[in-house]
From TrEMBL:
Residues 293-454 form the Acyl-CoA oxidase C-alpha1 domain. It comes from Petrolisthes manimaculis. Signal peptide: none annotated. Residues 23-151 form the Acyl-coenzyme A oxidase N-terminal domain. GO terms for molecular function: acyl-CoA oxidase activity; ATP binding; FAD binding; fatty acid binding. FAD binds at residues 157, 196. Residues 490-668 form the Acyl-CoA oxidase C-terminal domain. The keyword ATP-binding applies. Its cofactor is FAD. The active site is at residue 439. This is Acyl-coenzyme A oxidase.
């Protein structure tokens, strides 16, 4: 694939690549999950990227809002048609996992650029049917939805409530006479607001609504609701639906609004895997009333994968650019160095490369936990649901925050050119930062993790056995740092000790407020800034541990292991130095330890510097997926920037219309 590997590259990048100390392909295989998967991914990329239908007539930034939507919808539909019409393709792409990559942060970002109008159909509508529907419901709805005969979204958030699900106002009232549910939006704040694809694309939605039957409310439940006519695509009588207007990014996801006026749907449209309403209106409770939140748990895990893939793209662009860009003087009189020579630039970029691996190892672990726990749930064992909930909230929040901050660091690391749309860093940023808000706003996610930590801490005090991810909360009094040991194992132990002491302090603060007369909830709010810090420290510890385990377990040649161990070590030290107060206050590390680690970090930056470009090359991101004038394989940065500028519609005429209309009358006013 010329754009990825064989193309001529500039002298700077050629020299960088010649310095590589490890086997790049090994790291590519590790990230993909094996050589076969890498070859498979490349084959799919070749097929889809060779298809001219996925090219844009002009840069989307130059199109109107509606033109952009139509352009992405055209490509999204072509993608599905290409997938459906060809059995080989279906086998090649693979089922859910493959189609999600076409829709999302893998190849998807090269095919549809600023949000795919069909994304929610695959990312949430189908998973909601699979996770919340009975076997019969899955059979009926999946066969229609899989081929695109019907297109759906997930409509939960309302104008008035996104975070607080128990506060949702849309109602689904069962009428046993007609065996129908009546879906209704009683207030303006009950209007569904945000669902992707809802604005103009979908004709169905999984609607989350307060279930009323036999005069009693049973909380939020999922219903399949037809929004638009299957023939005319007009909104159904009793349904008002539209698009919510321009957003910071993801503007072609056509996020929408939706209101219901006493709108009737059949009894069979309540998704009844976990709880049921019998035909006579009797309500049958689920084994756990949070099972109806299951679709969100799934997507939170998926977001961790999106997060590191977006960061991979940003750091590939910024690192290659930093090897091509020369600026200032390091030594007076000598040629201007590559900006990658500056230690401060290395400190911006190399921790982002390490973060990609940290999130990847942790995400793989949470994905395995998700599969295990959901398997247990289907066999009636719900014991590990709280741990899965805490892990998925924590990793979703950590990965989306780290990736967003990291993408912005990469943008800033490219100076002025990073601010240009053609660098693609602005779009990567606006896409990544959305994940901080959607699928559970991050502060709220941290507080869910904190709730689990405090509960577990109290359980430990009572002598109960804790679940694996928090088992360290029983050992906080033991000194993790008895010797001057600063090995990886000792540093992970230091992370554990720091969180453990923080959680114990938080529990004491809570108790203090309660002793002074505060009710638990008020005491909780008074401690919530610190509780969020505990949750963040826990998720960081967890990621560090998975990073160390992941490197130890990976089968790698010596050179490749060395470079990955350096990244792992950088990750461990970097987060200790920026949170050193937690380690010092808990006694997990001394000031002397931190000074040694800071010194070591400087050495690691220098040791990793020669491999920087090869490390991002090993992410194996096709130029079309990077879509950046700064980050291409060949490093031909300046010519690309210039060529892209020439394509601006403003440059198709020498003198703009505005000159004659506004500027000239002003400039010539006194003549
Ligand atoms: C591409 C993507 C596009 C975007 C799509 C979207 O954004 S879609 C829209 C995305 N929208 C969002 O993501 C909305 C975010 N908001 C929410 O998810 C919830 O309202 C909440 C979790 C914040 C609180 O919920 P609440 O007020 O009902 O609960 P509570 O705080 O009173 O806790 C009670 C107990 O329940 C437990 N528990 C809670 N959740 C789960 C779970 N999933 N599983 C298991 N357990 C769970 C909790 O741990 C606690 O246990 P404890 O301690 O008693 O043993
Ligand atoms: C790009 C995008 C796509 C989306 N797609 C969908 C979709 O497809 N389907 C769908 O249903 N929804 C979707 N959403 C909605 C999204 O899930 C919600 O916006 C999100 O859950 C946050 O809820 P909110 O907007 O009500 O924020 P709020 O809860 O109002 O948050 C505002 C502030 O209040 C704080 N806050 C709120 N509650 C608490 C608390 N208990 N403790 C401490 N602080 C608190 C938050 O931390 C935040 O700082 C999307 C949103 C975006 C931005």
């Amino acid at each position: 694939m010329a754009a990825r590997k064989e193309g001529e590259c500039c002298e700077d990048l050629r020299r960088e690549r010649a310095k590589c100390s490890f086997n790049k392909e090994e790291l590519t295989y590790l990230m993909d999950g094996g050589k076969d998967k890498t070859l498979h991914r490349r084959k799919i990329e070749d097929i889809f990227l060779a298809d001219p239908e996925f090219l844009d007539p002009i840069r989307p930034e130059y199109m109107s809002h509606e033109e952009r939507y139509n352009n992405e919808l055209r490509k999204a539909c072509h993608m599905i048609r290409k997938f459906n019409e060809n059995e080989d393709m279906q086998q090649l792409v693979g089922e859910m996992e493959g189609i999600r990559s076409l829709m999302g942060s893998g190849l998807g970002v090269a095919l549809t650029k600023d949000g795919n109008p069909l994304a929610l159909h695959f990312v949430m509508f189908l998973p909601a049917i699979l996770g919340q529907g009975t076997v019969e419901q899955q059979g009926y709805w999946m066969s229609r939805a899989w081929t695109g005969e019907i297109i759906g979204t997930y409509a939960q958030t309302e104008l008035g409530h996104g975070t607080f699900l128990r506060g949702l106002e849309t109602t689904a009232t069962y009428d046993s006479n007609t065996q129908e549910f009546i879906i209704h939006s009683p207030t303006i704040t009950a209007t569904k607001w945000w669902p992707g694809g809802l604005g103009k694309t979908v004709n169905y939605a999984v609607v989350m609504a307060q279930l009323y039957t036999q005069g009693k409310c049973h909380g939020v439940h999922p219903f399949i609701v037809q929004i638009r006519d299957e023939e005319t695509h007009q909104s159904m009588p009793g349904v008002t639906v539209g698009e919510i207007g321009p957003r910071l990014g993801m503007n072609t996801n056509d996020n929408g609004f939706l209101r219901f006026n006493q709108y009737r749907i059949p009894h069979t449209n309540m998704l009844m895997k976990h709880s049921q309403v019998l035909k006579d209106g009797t309500y049958v409770k689920p084994a756990n009333d949070k099972l109806s939140y299951g679709t969100m748990v799934f997507v939170r895990v998926a977001i961790c994968f999106d997060a590191y893939r977006q960061l991979q793209r940003a750091v590939t662009i910024a690192t290659r650019y930093s090897a091509v860009r020369h600026q200032s003087e390091l030594v007076p009189g000598e040629p201007e160095p590559q900006i990658l020579e500056y230690q401060t630039q290395q400190y911006k970029l190399l921790p982002q490369i390490a973060t990609v691996y940290g999130i990847m190892f942790a995400a793989n672990d949470v994905w395995n936990t998700y599969n295990e726990v959901t398997g247990n749930i289907s066999e009636g064992n719900l014991a590990y649901l709280p741990e899965l909930h805490a892990l998925s909230c924590g990793l979703k929040a950590l990965s989306s925050t780290d990736a967003t901050n990291g993408v912005d660091v990469c943008r800033l690391a490219c100076g002025g050119h990073g601010y240009l749309a053609t660098s693609n860093l602005p779009r990567i940023y606006t896409t990544t930062t959305a994940a901080i808000t959607y699928e559970g706003e991050n502060t709220v996610m941290w507080l869910q993790v904190a709730r689990y930590l405090i509960k577990s801490y109290h359980d430990a005090q009572k002598g109960h056995r804790l679940q694996q991810s928090v088992s360290y909360l029983t050992t906080q009094s033991a000194s993790a740092h008895a010797t001057a040991d600063l090995s990886n194992t000792a540093l992970v132990a230091a992370y554990k000790q720091a969180v453990s002491v923080m959680v114990s302090n938080a529990a004491a603060h809570l108790q203090d407020h309660i002793s002074k007369g505060a009710v638990f909830e008020k005491a909780w709010n008074s401690c919530s800034v610190y509780l969020v810090k505990c949750a963040q420290a826990h998720a960081r510890y967890y990621t560090c541990e998975k990073f160390v385990d992941g490197v130890n377990r990976a089968e790698l040649s010596e050179g490749t292991r060395t470079v990955l161990l350096r990244l792992c070590r950088l990750y461990l030290i970097y987060h200790i130095t920026i949170n050193q107060g937690d380690f010092l206050r808990s006694g997990a590390l001394t000031g002397g330890d931190i000074s040694s680690l800071e010194k070591e970090m400087a050495d690691i930056l220098a040791a990793l510097r020669p491999d920087a470009v090869s490390l991002v090359d090993s992410f194996d991101i096709h130029d079309r997926v990077l879509d950046s004038s700064l980050g291409s394989w060949d490093g031909n940065v300046y010519q690309r920037l210039y060529n892209e500028a020439l394509k601006s519609p403003m440059n198709q005429t020498d003198v703009p219309q505005g000159y004659y209309k506004y500027l000239r009358p002003l400039m010539k006013a006194n003549l």
